Amino acid sequence: MRVMPRKPAAGPASGAVIGVDIGTSSSKGVLVGAEGALLRSAVREHAPDRPGPGRFEMSADVWWRDFTELARELTAAAAERGVSVAAVGVSGMGPCVLLTDEHDTPLRPAILYGVDTRSVSQIERLDERFGTAEIIDRCGSALSTQAAGPKIAWLAEREPATYARARRLYMPSSWLVRRLTGAYVLDHHSASQCTPLYDTTALDWYAPWAAEVAPGIDLPPLRWSGEAAGEVTAQAAAQTGLPAGIPVITGTVDAWAEALSVGAQGTGDLMLMYGTTMFLIHTVPRPLTSPSLWGTVGALPGTRNLAGGMATSGAVTTWLRDLFAAGDHAELVRLAGESGVGANGLLMLPYFAGERTPLMDPDARGVVAGLTLSHTRGDLYRAALEATAFGVRHNIGVIDGAGGDIRRVVAVGGGTRGALWTQIVSDVTGLEQEVRTVSVGAAYGGALLAAGLLGEAPVDAWNPVREVVAPRPEHTRRYDELYRLYRALYADTSATVHALAAMQSR
């Protein structure tokens, strides 16, 4: 796969590029050389606000603060190496809903993607208003807590005084573009997750539904992720340390940038993103839809995807790390490795923040079954890793049922750095996974897109395969039985956890 330039940019082809990604729990930046070498990486930790059950928000000030700090650190590193920064790539978690007034003043913190489940009643109302089948047919996806449209409707209904002042819609990547260049744009992929505002056949906003769901909002002009949105202004240069006049790409949602970073955008490819949440992106030869998945426009022109996302994955292991007061994950990973297949008879449902695909159940909750007084920290940590793997297998089964054709699996993200998690996923699914040399994720994908503005950026040359994780058949056979129990456990406990979820929201 090659990322081709859509608009040639000025600047030396030998210059370095910077990629920055705004994530759920941290922002990451990379300085990448002309041949794809990772020259420097940097991280800024942050945490979303949780103003109530099922609600996740973040201030846009956090996004800009993180970006400026990362940009200054990375441009200083470039200066130390005697290289110039020639372009900037951005990405971010999404779809998020940040509303501003006509002066670009944020009116409230942004509502985050599918981990925020506040819009259930709006989903029900919009389904009744427009028709579930009609929404899927036009927009590619059923309405769910992942979709931006119902969250806009929630703001209009629940915070009318604030909404009355709203004029523009931003996500993390488009907010950075606005602050850097003054351009008000959004990429097609991010727009395709604004269901029901975007028509995936026409590749444009669908005016009748947009006017009803998001009245008064001047929706942004649309571009493809790799197109130049504009150039760094003098004011932004003074704030960030970036050279004025260099191009900034339009950018996209983090998971799609991650897929680009490892070349997982060919037909038949499936990207698995190991992070705070687990994300799956399958590239299909033609538009496919499923009520249990998201059918989206791809990051690159002419591509289509079936995508899925779990509400938690690494978030659960981080919760366990903090609960156990462990300094880092390494010791828990070691103990989980000693626990062995099946975590000594523990089975976990990883629905600690509800579940996105394929359950589409914001009221699902985490369950740990089989606990005894003999179970250890390692057993619980192993059960969490296996729960994520079972969730991946569940999504893959639904992708296959919707007409997908998975020919290659590529793993990316922080969770690939240790061998255990990826091995468990391969054992549970029975599928091989490629792991590329650079697995820092979306920031690297943004840098690759930025390099595409300067010329061709072949992913295989930038980021070759480091290893292939193969399933172990004897483990796969043992996991088959556990997977059947996993699927039954949700059905057997759903009434109880739904009642508990209702109590939690009082």
TrEMBL record:
<dbReference type="InterPro" id="IPR018485">
    <property type="entry name" value="FGGY_C"/>
</dbReference>
<dbReference type="InterPro" id="IPR043129">
    <property type="entry name" value="ATPase_NBD"/>
</dbReference>
<dbReference type="Pfam" id="PF00370">
    <property type="entry name" value="FGGY_N"/>
</dbReference>
<dbReference type="InterPro" id="IPR050406">
    <property type="entry name" value="FGGY_Carb_Kinase"/>
</dbReference>
<protein>
    <submittedName>
        <fullName>Sugar kinase</fullName>
    </submittedName>
</protein>
<dbReference type="Pfam" id="PF02782">
    <property type="entry name" value="FGGY_C"/>
</dbReference>
<dbReference type="InterPro" id="IPR018483">
    <property type="entry name" value="Carb_kinase_FGGY_CS"/>
</dbReference>
<feature type="domain" description="Carbohydrate kinase FGGY C-terminal">
    <location>
        <begin position="271"/>
        <end position="451"/>
    </location>
</feature>
<keyword id="KW-0859">Xylose metabolism</keyword>
<dbReference type="GO" id="GO:0016301">
    <property type="term" value="F:kinase activity"/>
</dbReference>
<keyword id="KW-0808">Transferase</keyword>
<feature type="domain" description="Carbohydrate kinase FGGY N-terminal">
    <location>
        <begin position="17"/>
        <end position="259"/>
    </location>
</feature>
<comment type="similarity">
    <text>Belongs to the FGGY kinase family.</text>
</comment>
<dbReference type="GO" id="GO:0016773">
    <property type="term" value="F:phosphotransferase activity, alcohol group as acceptor"/>
</dbReference>
<dbReference type="InterPro" id="IPR018484">
    <property type="entry name" value="FGGY_N"/>
</dbReference>
<keyword id="KW-0119">Carbohydrate metabolism</keyword>
<dbReference type="GO" id="GO:0042732">
    <property type="term" value="P:D-xylose metabolic process"/>
</dbReference>
<dbReference type="InterPro" id="IPR000577">
    <property type="entry name" value="Carb_kinase_FGGY"/>
</dbReference>
<keyword id="KW-0418">Kinase</keyword>
